[in-house]
Design brief:
This protein is α/β, with parallel strands linked by helices and about 280 residues long. The chain has 10 helices and 7 strands. The strands form 2 sheets. Strands 1-2-3-7-6 form a 5-stranded parallel β-sheet, with helices on both faces. It has a two-stranded antiparallel sheet with strand order 4-5. Strand 4 and strand 5 form a beta hairpin. The two termini are about 15 Å apart. Bound molecules: thiamine diphosphate and magnesium ion. The site of magnesium ion has 7 residues, from strand 4.
C-alpha cells in the first residue's frame, strides 16, 4: 500500500516542485554535486514514491516493500529530498549533503540511510543489482516489484546491456527500468558522445516491452508504471524523456550543469524560477 494515495495530481505536481527546491538548497549548501539529472527526475521520483510504490516510510525494512535501485547514484539529491518528503527522515538533515560522516553521502550508501536499497555511484551496475533482487524474489515467489532508475549515459557501459540480456533471458517481469533519457552525460550530448538511438528498438530487440513517456507528466508516468505492473511476459523499460535541469531556466538542456551546482545568486534565481512554476503546499 502507498500511504499517499489521497493526494491529487495537482498536489503531486506541487510536491515535485518542492522537491526541486530542496535539491537546489541541498546542492548549494554542499557546494558540489549534480544538478541537472536530479532536477530532471523530480517528477519520476514523485510519481514513484507518492503513488506507485508499495512502501511504508515508518517501516523501511518491511519485507513486502517494492525496491528502488538508483543506478545513476550521482542524482541522489532527488532521492534524498523525496525520501525526506515522504517522512523517512527529517527534512533538516537534507542540508548535511556531502558533509563528512553525514548519512547523506555524495553517492548513496545503503547502510547509512533508511530507504536506500543499494550503494551506487559506479555507473552501469544498478541494473545487474536489480536483476539479482528480481531473480531472488521470483525464486522465492515474493510479490514485490523492483524499480531500477538508470540514466541514458549508463548505456555506454557494457555491463548495462549484460543486465538487459540477463533480465530478458530469465523473464524477470517483476523489474521495471525507468530510464532518464535526458540526452546529456558528463561530456556533452549523448548523441555526440556515444549515440544511443534507435534506443527503444534496441531494448525491444533484447526482448523488453518499452513504453515512452514525457518524464514531466506525472499522470503519464503513473499510468506507465501501472501498465508495466500488468505485463507478466516481459520486463518493461519506461523511457522517461526529461529535460535536464527542469524548472530552472538557465540550467535546462545545458550539459554544463551535469556536475555543477549554483552559486548563491544563481540559487536564488533558481528558487525564484521554481516558485513561479509551482507554489509550496502543505499536507500530512
Ligand atoms: C563507472 C563510472 N564511470 C564514470 C563515472 C563518472 N560519471 C559520473 S556521472 C557521468 C555521466 C553519466 O551520464 P548520465 O548519467 O546520463 O548523466 P546526467 O544525465 O545525469 O547528466 C559519469 C561519466 C562514474 N560515476 N562511474
Ligand atoms: Mg543523461
Amino acid at each position: 500500500m502507498n500511504p499517499f494515495l489521497h493526494l491529487t495530481t495537482e498536489q503531486l505536481e506541487k510536491t515535485a516542485y518542492d522537491i526541486r527546491q530542496d535539491v537546489i538548497k541541498m546542492l548549494t549548501a554542499a557546494g558540489s554535486g549534480h544538478s541537472a539529472g536530479a532536477l530532471g527526475m523530480a517528477d519520476v521520483f514523485t510519481a514513484l514514491y507518492f503513488r506507485v510504490l508499495n512502501h511504508d516510510p515508518k517501516n523501511p525494512g518491511w519485507n513486502e516493500r517494492d525496491r528502488v535501485v538508483l543506478s545513476n547514484g550521482h542524482i541522489c539529491p532527488v532521492l534524498y529530498a523525496t525520501l525526506a518528503a515522504c517522512g523517512y527522515f527529517e527534512k533538516e538533515e537534507l542540508l548535511t549533503l556531502r558533509v563528512l560522516n553525514s548519512r547523506l553521502q555524495g553517492h548513496p550508501h545503503r547502510e547509512s540511510l533508511p530507504g536506500i536499497e543499494t550503494t551506487s555511484g559506479p555507473l552501469g551496475s544498478g541494473l545487474s543489482q536489480a536483476a539479482g533482487m528480481a531473480l531472488d524474489a521470483k525464486l522465492d515467489n515474493e510479490k514485490h516489484d523492483i524499480f531500477c532508475v538508470l540514466s541514458d549515459g549508463e548505456h555506454d557501459e557494457g555491463s548495462t546491456w549484460e543486465a538487459v540480456m540477463f533480465i530478458s533471458k530469465y523473464r524477470l517481469a517483476n523489474i521495471t527500468a525507468l530510464i532518464d533519457r535526458n540526452g546529456i552525460q558528463i561530456d556533452g550530448f549523448t548523441e555526440d558522445v556515444m549515440p544511443l538511438e534507435p534506443f527503444k528498438e534496441k531494448y525491444e530487440a533484447f526482448g523488453w516491452h518499452v513504453i515512452e513517456v514525457d518524464g514531466h507528466n506525472i499522470t503519464a508516468i503513473i499510468d506507465a508504471c501501472n501498465l508495466a505492473h500488468s505485463i507478466y511476459e516481459k520486463p518493461v523499460a519506461i523511457i522517461c524523456h526529461t529535460i535536464p535541469g527542469k524548472g530552472v531556466d538557465f540550467m535546462e538542456f545545458n550539459p554544463d550543469w551535469h556536475g555543477k551546482v549554483p552559486g548563491s545568486n544563481e540559487a536564488q534565481e533558481a528558487i525564484r524560477d521554481l516558485r513561479t512554476l509551482k507554489g509550496t503546499i502543505e499536507f500530512e
